[in-house]
């Protein structure tokens, strides 16, 4: 992530591009935060790093490289997590650019910047420019905390990896990936029994590759390769240097417009699709009513009073716009379930088997906190008839 004039962002695939662009655009005071060290696999696209830098912190090496090449820019690196810093730290910047690879970190910085807004103090509103890439696809967006749609408002746009129906795998594969999934999900357990598939074992991958190749031939499907097998099994989406360059360019362009007012900035979301030709689409993503971060009201949530608390929690975990893992739940009048500390967990565990209707009234507000949630979520739980 880079903070400039100061912006800030990470120093990974997007971060290298962003830092270079900001420095060459005339930004003079930039802070960069990154918690990673340089890996040899980064060297093909993270162009601020050399083989001799492997093992060193990305933020530090990137800052030194850009300062050596571009005169007059000061880049302050921080090797650590963005969560190490608090509102006092983020308040010193004019805007924040994110090139983060995790949903958690994005939610955190988004909630932090929304929280920092004081309507009495214009300076407290820090525009957030968020860039993200996945293979040939990418997006950049401008978030004015509390004024425009925030990162949390759009969380339901994150699509879980499309699951291929088992019948497609078993009977009529159409794509090379289907053949690979067939080999790993169906053939491996059928032939190997209890032997566990190790995604890092080249012999196992070779076995899957050969099986998938045979099956592909049978159905006249081409394109199964060893590296594709590895990619499908490990769920790897390759990082593409040109996608990073395009998205970073868009982010820095917006930063320059916001800081200098030379032109209106983007309103507010640009999607780039580079896998079939080159296509971009810009639209206004609207604020979500009842967004738990930038909205003000508790959201309604329909549940059955017959569900046990445990069932209720499981269903919440499945919701893509909530994304919780180990939640703690309470109402105004009682503790429903505490994921920690141990004594509280023991005390509240029996509630998991109780029915919702025995724990609360329909319409009662439930507050939910979770390690994955940078804020506390409030739901009005309404019992369906
Ligand atoms: Zn929001």
From TrEMBL:
GO terms for molecular function: ATP binding; NEDD8 activating enzyme activity. Pathway: Protein modification; protein neddylation. One of its GO terms (biological process) is protein neddylation. Catalytic subunit of the dimeric E1 enzyme, which activates NEDD8. It comes from Morchella conica CCBAS932. The keyword Nucleotide-binding applies. Keywords: ATP-binding, Ligase, Nucleotide-binding, Ubl conjugation pathway. One of its GO terms (cellular component) is nucleus. Its EC number is 6.2.1.64. Gene3D superfamilies: NAD(P)-binding Rossmann-like Domain, Ubiquitin activating enzymes (Uba3). Chain: B, domain 2, Ubiquitin-like 2 activating enzyme e1b. Chain: B, domain 3. It comes from the Eukaryota. InterPro entries: E2-binding, ThiF/MoeB/HesA, ThiF_NAD_FAD-bd, Ub_act_enz_dom_a_sf, Uba3_N, Ubiquitin-activating_enz. Pfam families: E2_bind, ThiF. Belongs to the ubiquitin-activating E1 family. UBA3 subfamily. It catalyses: ATP + [NEDD8 protein] + [E1 NEDD8-activating enzyme]-L-cysteine = AMP + diphosphate + [E1 NEDD8-activating enzyme]-S-[NEDD8 protein]-yl-L-cysteine. Residues 301-384 form the E2 binding domain. This is NEDD8-activating enzyme E1 catalytic subunit. The keyword Nucleus does not apply.
